[in-house]
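To whoever is on call:

I kicked off a structure prediction for a single chain this morning and the downstream step that reads the tokens threw a length-mismatch warning. I double-checked the sequence; it's 434 residues and nothing unusual in it as far as I can see. Pasting both halves so you can look.
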Amino acid sequence: MRAAALENHDTQIEEILVVTNENHRFLVLNQLKALTLTTKVTILLESESKNTAPALTLAALAGRDINPDSVLVVTPADHYMRDLKSFNVAMHQAIKAAADGTIVTLGVVPTRPDTGFGYIEYKGDEACKDVITFKEKPDLDAAEDMIKAGHHAWNAGMFILRSNTWLEAIQRSNPEIASSINTAWQKRVSDQWFTRAEPKAFAASPSDSIDYAVMEKASALNVAVRLVLLSAGWSDLGSFDALDEIEAKDGQGNVLQGDVVSLNSSNNIAIASKKNISLLGVHNLIVIETADSVLVANKDDAQSIKALVGLLDKEHSHLLSEHTRVNRPWGWYETIDEGENFKVKRIGVKPMAKLSYQSHQFRNEHWVVVKGNASIVRDGEEITLHQDESTYIKKGVKHQLMNNQESLLEIIEVQTGEKVVEEDIIRFEDKYGR
């Protein structure tokens, strides 16, 4: 919505490009549909994570194909902006300054010494200032010194630049990224929902950030980098600490969401999604409960979350790849329980949506409608199930589940058989091209 809101009589938004991972494609698609944007949106899919420099290169190639003179507004999706009007003013200043080939970054006016952000040192009193250097995340003493000295802004990772400016810079700075991503773009495959960079070429690209690849080398690359200050109630939602700034608190300074009770506890963040969280005599904690995991952290150690995820990847990798709730173009499913030869799912099918016409080699399925009406094709025969009614789909039988109503359809599915895995699907027809 922030991107679409930038359009005015001087600025035309030709297209919104969303660069995301293959695993997040249906979540992004559903969120975009909920926004009902009038501006054209293209979802660019990465087959794997390669950091921000390859992602921007992919977007720049798409932008150049749309318009050789296009200006890209590059912004992470996980930012909160309290004052949208001030954000738009700063962005329009930056867009104007980027037209001549300058790279412009929005630097957030710091409100405290923070060790979780990189910093940008700048000079000049005009609206668009000269960047002196980009600084890494500092220790607390260095952050305090920069705040006292002034002329430093938080690096929020927002950049405004012409597509060709980035493509020329990345070619000089890291030709391997430029070559790999260009090949991946030339061999891309598109369907009605997504544009996929060719996986093998994309995987060959080095992983690097925008800052490391270009911004910190800008002077050597003969690229001008300037800065527009942003004071718009910005917060980086990439950390739980950010909730302290934007969410309402109780009388003891707690941010509490979901089924949470608190006694003699203060300065905590507690978010419950399924189960109750009870806080008793604890302080300065982050407690996050989800269907498949619980996080308990000291706020003072919140910046170590990335290291913790790395440990999880080594010892419990399934938690990062196999989520309890999975989004699909037709809706979602949620695993409730599973054992050696069974799995129980709660399935939600969006209005006027349908699953693929399919069969299974190894599993049987029992369906119970708990909300709405289900239209079912089973070996060519169509039946309708109402709430509290059920049916049985034997393995090998071709079938399809449809929601022909204007409200959500929910069913409970019990899978049984020698193998109950997601890969056990043979599709004969699918409107989503899978």
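Update from on-call: the warning came from a stale cache, not from the record. Cleared it. Sanity check on the structure: The mean pLDDT is 91.
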